[in-house]
């Protein structure tokens, strides 16, 4: 046994531990948080980059050290308590071999895996913990019967198609999970197919983050087909995959009938001009989508011309991200014409393009009477001091627009 009972009773928290014990050493028995108490009252558990405490056993636990597990509870005793993980998750049994440490006296509270079976935990974040497919199998088994967990974060865990297959099977049974993040993993089209099949029947999940995986147009097709039947998913993040223009076409088809999706992020997917054209046609009639992110997709002036036509009469879209798309003055001219008629868009991101003074002038003229756009981001575009003058003149009369010009912008 290790630890300093006297220091703990005085309210100090030096590094220490009590192995194989289920109760902390706090002097007052009523203030001792037991494993049972944590299990029954824990609401939020966040495990990020779990480390071996042997490497830091001589370091004091203070606010500057990274919090590995954040414990948010409804208990008066535990409301301000944090917990920590004592070792990285093992490949053999990643959930059952981790240990919670109480910050009252840093005593070991074994059994992270048991928390998923409780009836109070609503948020579980396991970012960057080498969970892999095997670890996800254990977690998926628990999710089948869990009815309280609403947020699950599994980013950066080397999860592949096999793990996603198990997770998808759990989602078909689970009716509680609302927010699922599996970004920065190794999911391919076949893995997305498993997820899409689960989404066909799942009416609970509202947010799905698949950023930076290995999803191509076939995976996009499966997701798009699921969206035509799914009546719950409101946010879909697919940034930095490889869906291409065909993937853009599949999502455009889904947007024609979907009545739920409000946020769609397709940034960094090489959608190109053709993909932008498909999406533009869908925007003409879509009345639900509020945020569309198309950053870094090689759209160019021609692609923007199509999109401008799409938003001309659109009355749903409020945020449009077109940054890093090789847009020049000609493209902005098309967009400006659409903004003269559009009275819904509030945020427009045109950062890191090739917009010069002429483009800024087109935009400024369109915004003279526009009373809805509040944010126009034009950072990192081409040099042109007259552009600043055009915007300044608009700002004198427009009381809603805030032109955000980065200090390094050459406009």
TrEMBL record:
Protein name in the entry: Uncharacterized protein
InterPro entries in alphabetical order: Leu-rich_rpt, LRR-containing, LRR_dom_sf
One Pfam family of this chain: LRR_6
Superkingdom, natural source: Eukaryota
Annotated PANTHER family: F-BOX DOMAIN-CONTAINING PROTEIN-RELATED, LEUCINE RICH REPEAT FAMILY PROTEIN
């Amino acid at each position: 046994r290790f630890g300093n009972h006297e220091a703990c009773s005085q309210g100090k928290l030096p590094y220490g531990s009590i192995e194989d014990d289920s109760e902390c050493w706090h002097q007052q028995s009523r203030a001792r948080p037991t494993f049972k108490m944590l299990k029954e009252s824990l609401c939020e558990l966040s495990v990020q980059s779990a480390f071996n405490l042997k490497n830091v056993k001589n370091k004091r636990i203070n606010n500057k050290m990274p919090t590995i597990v954040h414990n948010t509870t409804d208990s008066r005793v535990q409301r301000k308590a944090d917990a920590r993980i004592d070792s990285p998750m093992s490949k053999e049994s990643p959930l059952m071999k981790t240990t919670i440490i109480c910050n009252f006296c840093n005593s070991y509270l074994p059994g992270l895996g048991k928390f998923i079976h409780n009836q109070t935990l609503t948020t579980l974040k396991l970012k960057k913990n080498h969970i892999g497919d095997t670890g996800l199998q254990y977690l998926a088994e628990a999710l089948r019967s869990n009815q309280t967990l609403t947020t699950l974060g599994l980013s950066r865990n080397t999860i592949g198609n096999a793990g996603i297959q198990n997770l998808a099977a759990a989602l078909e049974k689970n009716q509680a999970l609302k927010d699922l993040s599996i970004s920065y993993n190794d999911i391919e089209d076949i893995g997305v197919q498993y997820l899409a099949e689960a989404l066909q029947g799942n009416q609970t999940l509202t947010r799905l983050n698949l950023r930076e995986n290995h999803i191509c147009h076939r995976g996009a097709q499966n997701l798009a087909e699921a969206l035509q039947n799914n009546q719950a998913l409101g946010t879909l993040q697919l940034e930095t995959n490889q869906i291409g223009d065909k993937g853009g076409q599949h999502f455009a088809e889904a947007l024609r009938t979907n009545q739920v999706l409000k946020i769609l992020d397709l940034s960094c997917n090489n959608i190109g001009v053709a993909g932008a054209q498909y999406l533009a046609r869908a925007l003409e009639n879509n009345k639900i989508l509020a945020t569309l992110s198309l950053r870094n997709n090689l759209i160019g002036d021609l692609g923007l011309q199509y999109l401008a036509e799409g938003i001309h009469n659109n009355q749903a879209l409020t945020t449009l991200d077109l940054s890093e798309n090789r847009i020049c003055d000609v493209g902005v001219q098309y967009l400006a014409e659409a903004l003269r008629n559009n009275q819904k868009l509030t945020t427009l991101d045109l950062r890191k393009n090739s917009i010069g003074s002429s483009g800024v002038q087109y935009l400024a003229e369109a915004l003279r009477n526009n009373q809805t756009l509040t944010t126009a981001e034009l950072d990192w575009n081409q040099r042109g001091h007259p552009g600043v003058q055009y915007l300044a003149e608009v700002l004198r009369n427009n009381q809603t627009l805030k032109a955000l010009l980065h200090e390094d912008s050459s406009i």
